[in-house]
Amino acid sequence: MGRSDSIVQKDSLDLPLFNLSTLIVATDNFSSNNKLGEGGFGPVYKGCLEDGREIAVKRLSVISTQGVEEFRNEVIFISKLQHRNLVKIPGYCVEGTEKLLIYEFMPNSSLDLHLFGKSITKILDWLQRFHIINGIARGLLYLHQDSHLRIIHRDLKAANILLDREMEPKISDFGLARSFGGNETETNTKRVVGTYGYMSPEYAGDGIFSTKSDVFSFGVLVLEIVSGKKSRQLFYQDHNHNIAGYAWRLYKEGKTLEFADESLIELNDIEVLRSIHLALLCVQHRPEDRPDMSMVVMMLSSDQRLPEPTRPGYYIEDDKFGPENSSSMPTQSPTVSHCYTMTHV
Questions:
Q1: Is residue 164 among the annotated active site residues?
Q2: Whether the predicted pLDDT of 173 surpasses 60
Q3: φ, ψ of residue 278 in degrees (nearest 5)
Q4: Which pLDDT band holds residue 179 (cuts at 50, 70, 90)?
Q5: C-alpha closest to that of 178 among 134, 142, 143
Q6: Rounded to the nearest 10 degrees, what angle do helices 211-227 and 269-282 cross at?
Q7: Which end of the chain, N or C, is less surrounded by CB atoms within 10 Å?
Q8: What secondary structure does DSSP assign to 223-277, as a single string?
Q9: What pTM did the predictor assign?
Q10: What is the mean pLDDT of residues 165-177?
Q11: Catalytic residue chosen out of the listed positions 155, 173, 214, 261
Q12: What does the alpha-carbon distance between residue 332 and residue 152 come to, in Å, rounded to a whole number?
């Protein structure tokens, strides 16, 4: 038995183990015609099992240096988590050098394609966007407080939000997730992993992560959903503002509604303003100033007056980092640890 087999099988899993031959048939031998996309750890293929179930198969690349740990995380965490806003794994496969994860198939693909994809013909309306925001919030609340594992996702972004037939959002990709035990509230790491543009200041700079790191990422994601623009996009020629800086500037100028996606025909002004305000609370520079996810869910569903946000923390990245790739690097790297600043107005 190889090392990857023992890493997965030493944990008690209530999850079917698939034969490689079954997945070869289901995906037509991993045909390029069935390829749905490719992430940092390998390609994903659409498949159909003999019983008619549609699946998505993530085939971890054999050249991935981080594949074993991330594979183990996905199998263990998702198999033990059950929530309508988390993606489900019907099974997995470990055979020879092959490591594959089987997901429920999401016919509406990922959120980033609907927000930023050029091939999408139908724009998400505001009702759908607000529903997606609420669903992601409920999923995060479950991870942080209601599940017995107490999970910090660490790579929450639009590409990791999948949409089912009813456009219900499902948080996916738990390869970088970590669980907390006992009364732990935060920890640190020498290897910062995640996606530039979504990382909180304390995590990117010092390797300190907590549930408030996910809250920061959620805030960035909400700003993307409302505006239809990417987090790393700069919005002013004379100011190096990313999405948080831009939202903050408009908020301070009393022009918050101008932040909303111009393609939206019908808006609920109250919900839009509340979503932007809440997002600014989530991306505040100091983690102790950010709300936890139970407060976020409550704020989304009530008309209670929200506290005033402080300036968000944001950073300007070195161009050598790709905008959509999950990355990892030591916390001592000056490119990461010294790139955070505060917005200026």
A1: no
A2: yes
A3: -65, -40
A4: confident
A5: 143
A6: 150
A7: N
A8: HHHHH-S-TT----SSS---HHHHHHHHHHTT-GGGGS-TT-SS--HHHHHHHHH
A9: 0.84
A10: 92
A11: 155
A12: 22
